[in-house]
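LAB NOTEBOOK - FOLDING QUEUE
OPERATOR: T.R.
BATCH SIZE: 2
PURPOSE: Compare the predicted structure-token outputs for two unrelated chains run back to back under identical settings.
PRIORITY: normal
REVIEWER: second-year student, initials M.K.

ITEM 1
FIELD SEQUENCE / FIELD STRUCTURE:
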Amino acid sequence: MEFMYHFKFDNLFVINIFVIGQMILLSLFYASILELKVQKKIVKHSVCWALFILGVQFFIDYTQFLKFNLFAITITSLLIVAFALLHFYNMLTEHKTYYYITIAVIFFMLGSTILYLVGNLTLSLSNDVKYLSWTLNAFLFLIYQLFILYEWKISFSKKFSSD
């Protein structure tokens, strides 16, 4: 995106590729760790429906793919949050696997989605306010990555050091 920005290319479509790819990958992750078949089916069917709905939206108006598409961001992020909450619910009675990753996903996806939705409202505000919202999103992303690192440290680093 930075390369495209410096060469004055429109790079907003990259966010759509990112959020759709993120939804697919995190959905595969949650489908792999959910134990009930009905929950796995819910995840798979939800992703297929979301991809279908987004495909129809892009087919009807392809310019939506080239824009900052709040609908795509919202639907993909909220689906991931729903899958994370489903896994979180399962952890109430089972062993807590990927606990910190799930907390990070819920925290980051909800916060980031709210910031994106509010982002359009800040267009008429000063550049400092716009910069603050993007800085807050970067901070949320940093916290997200630190939670994932912590989960890796407590779950996997011992396995690699004992080999």
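ITEM 2
FIELD SEQUENCE / FIELD STRUCTURE:
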Amino acid sequence: MHVDECFLLGYIVKTHGTKGQVVAFFDVDYPEDYEDLESVFLEQKGRLIPFFITSMEPQAKGRFIIKFEDIDTIAQAETLRNTSLYLPLDELPELEEGQFYFHDVIGYQVVDEQHGALGTVKEFYDLPNQQLMVMEYLNQEMLVPVMDEIFLRADHETKQLHVSLPEGLLEVYTQPSSPDDEDEDTEEEKK
């Protein structure tokens, strides 16, 4: 299994107890959708290795206490700390009509309600307090905040992402650069 065939489910935060259990954080919208997992892939030395789950207890805020098969000591569990957890893409929950996963819309044409076709989705950045879409627009990268009121729907048949951009966002990327007002004032003073 390769990383590009999977999605990042979360990561192991710390060990728990003395019998090889770990605390994992599932960095997904609905962690409860994954309460019955039988296995996950852990990234180790650049490769994804399957680990089988013998028990899993949900905790608060997307955390789970997990016991993996053949991990029986705190020392073994400690080697898993900060390890990323992955699942195959086909295990993503089904979405409602018009909804999408970020990886699904890479390469889609972005169509704005007011301005029509704009550019192409290049990638998404997942920053601590904000997610951003990177769009190729007029031969430059344009950043668009990921918000429900901006992203209307994805049309998978036509490979279009329909948006309603905030007023003024396009202008930030299209206005020609002009000399600073201070420079103009300085020229006037010299005369």
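REVIEWER COMMENT (ITEM 2): The two ends are 71 Å apart (CA to CA).
FOLLOW-UP: none requested
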